[in-house]
Amino acid sequence: MRVIRLLLWLLGAVLLGGIVHLATVLLVPVMATQDAFARVSTIAPINTVVPIPTPTPEKAIMPFMAPAFVVSVCRYDLSRGPLKFSVPISQAYTSVSFYTRSDIAYYAINDRAAGRRVIELDLMTAAQRAELPENEEITAADRLIVASPTTTGLIVIRALVPESGSIVAARTTLAAAQCRPQ
Question: How far is residue 117 from each of residues 67, 73, 75, 152, measured CA to CA in Å?
Fold first, then answer.
């Protein structure tokens, strides 16, 4: 009888610990105040491409930044209309990732997938996309349209620096990136 009672107490403690652990894992990202969007907000005006400083062991503006990449970011706001985004591709590798305000990735493209010397696209909400004329041939044939699930978020642009001598070329490439209202 004592053994059964002890086992029930242990089972209850394990269940309670599991519930607390699960609740903590699910709530911490929602309650965090210094996420990537908040940290980028201190250096990046809305709808402008800004270079991110090279990370150091003591300080990195965004999490998980690889030192082999030069990074720029555009903090966007689609409440006033769609954005036109473009970035020339670098010599080695260029990628563009799109994140919501709550750090959820919803789209990514790289230079190989773009198939051009410039990655160009229009960023808009689903409602803004629905307002486009249906018979506009240019919409479907000549431009890439990305639908954002939220009105605010981040566009992260990365250019690979395969050797230390090419860092200036990668920074120059990202400096030519544009993120502007249409």
Answer: 24, 20, 24, 27
Number of compact structural domains in the chain: 2
**115 and 50, same structural domain?**
yes
Residue 30 C-alpha from the chain's centroid: 17
The residue behind tokens 């970011």 is 73
Q: Domain containing 95 — which CATH number?
A: 2.60.40
Across 140-173, b (16+ Cβ under 10 Å) vs e yields eeeeeebbbeebbbbbbbbbbbeeeebeeebbeb
Q: What is the domain extent for residue 26?
A: 1-31
Is the pLDDT reported for residue 50 higher than 90? yes
Note whether 67 and 21 are same-domain residues: no
Binning pLDDT at 50, 70 and 90, where does residue 142 land? low
| Residue 133 scores a pLDDT above 80 | no
Question: What's the pLDDT tens digit per position in 78-88?
Answer: 999 999 999 99
> Are residues 70 and 140 both part of a single domain?
yes
